[in-house]
Amino acid sequence: MIRLTLIEHGGTPHEVSASAGSSLMQAAVDNAVPGIDADCGGGCACGPCHIKVPAEWRERVGAPNDIESMILDQTPERDDHSRLACQITLEPQLDGLVVHIPEFQM
Hints:
Blueprint: E1 2-7, E2 13-18, H1 24-30, E3 50-52, H2 55-61, H3 66-72, E4 82-84, E5 97-100
Parallel strand pairs: 1-5
Antiparallel strand pairs: 1-2, 3-4
């Protein structure tokens, strides 16, 4: 199991576990983490699963691909730490990952 911490905009942490191979979005939805929606079911078509990856995790998480980047371009809060949770596949090197949920989703 991969351990994750998702931190709401107001600072409330949610510690969850998920199986390797699942998405960060699915882990959040399965654990009812507020602020992460799965409107498109993980198809990288909407954006309300926007999260911020701290600098110390960015290399392990990786950069967004072109399609994800196009979706993120529509997000006013996008910055260099932005990713879509539906596009992050949980792997052993992400055990302990901490991400932040922005105040607003698209």
